[in-house]
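The instructor's notes for this session suggest beginning with a concrete chain rather than abstract definitions. Hand out the sequence below and ask the class to guess, before any prediction is shown, which regions might be ordered.
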Amino acid sequence: MIAYVFPPIMMILGYIVADRLGFSEMQSIAGSFIGLVIGFIFFWLSMIDFFAKKTIDEEIKNCFC
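After discussion, reveal the predicted structure:
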Protein backbone atom coordinates (compact mmCIF):
# COMPACT_ATOMS: atom_id res chain seq x y z
CA MET A 1 0.00 0.00 0.00
CA ILE A 2 2.70 2.46 0.99
CA ALA A 3 4.54 1.72 -2.26
CA TYR A 4 1.63 3.21 -4.20
CA VAL A 5 0.99 6.22 -1.95
CA PHE A 6 4.39 7.43 -0.79
CA PRO A 7 6.10 8.27 -4.14
CA PRO A 8 3.26 10.47 -5.49
CA ILE A 9 3.06 12.30 -2.16
CA MET A 10 6.80 12.99 -2.28
CA MET A 11 6.45 14.16 -5.88
CA ILE A 12 3.69 16.60 -4.93
CA LEU A 13 5.65 17.83 -1.92
CA GLY A 14 8.74 18.36 -4.09
CA TYR A 15 6.70 20.48 -6.50
CA ILE A 16 5.14 22.53 -3.69
CA VAL A 17 8.50 23.17 -2.02
CA ALA A 18 10.10 24.24 -5.31
CA ASP A 19 7.13 26.49 -6.06
CA ARG A 20 7.25 28.08 -2.59
CA LEU A 21 10.95 28.80 -3.09
CA GLY A 22 10.01 30.86 -6.13
CA PHE A 23 11.38 28.59 -8.83
CA SER A 24 10.01 28.69 -12.36
CA GLU A 25 7.51 26.11 -13.62
CA MET A 26 10.24 24.00 -15.23
CA GLN A 27 12.34 24.08 -12.09
CA SER A 28 9.30 23.14 -9.99
CA ILE A 29 8.74 20.13 -12.23
CA ALA A 30 12.38 19.16 -11.76
CA GLY A 31 11.81 19.60 -8.01
CA SER A 32 8.90 17.18 -8.16
CA PHE A 33 11.11 14.53 -9.76
CA ILE A 34 13.83 15.19 -7.20
CA GLY A 35 11.19 14.61 -4.52
CA LEU A 36 10.22 11.38 -6.26
CA VAL A 37 13.83 10.18 -6.27
CA ILE A 38 14.22 11.08 -2.60
CA GLY A 39 10.98 9.22 -1.85
CA PHE A 40 12.21 6.10 -3.65
CA ILE A 41 15.54 6.27 -1.80
CA PHE A 42 13.78 6.46 1.58
CA PHE A 43 11.40 3.68 0.55
CA TRP A 44 14.31 1.51 -0.64
CA LEU A 45 16.24 2.07 2.59
CA SER A 46 13.21 1.17 4.69
CA MET A 47 12.65 -2.02 2.68
CA ILE A 48 16.28 -3.05 3.08
CA ASP A 49 15.95 -2.65 6.85
CA PHE A 50 12.64 -4.55 6.89
CA PHE A 51 13.90 -7.48 4.81
CA ALA A 52 17.24 -7.65 6.63
CA LYS A 53 15.47 -7.77 10.00
CA LYS A 54 13.03 -10.39 8.71
CA THR A 55 15.86 -12.54 7.33
CA ILE A 56 17.88 -12.33 10.55
CA ASP A 57 14.82 -13.25 12.63
CA GLU A 58 14.12 -16.23 10.36
CA GLU A 59 17.72 -17.42 10.61
CA ILE A 60 17.61 -17.22 14.40
CA LYS A 61 14.33 -19.18 14.44
CA ASN A 62 15.69 -21.85 12.14
CA CYS A 63 18.88 -22.16 14.14
CA PHE A 64 17.12 -22.88 17.44
CA CYS A 65 14.34 -25.13 16.15
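Then share the key points. The chain has a mean pLDDT of 83. DSSP finds two helices and no strands in the chain.
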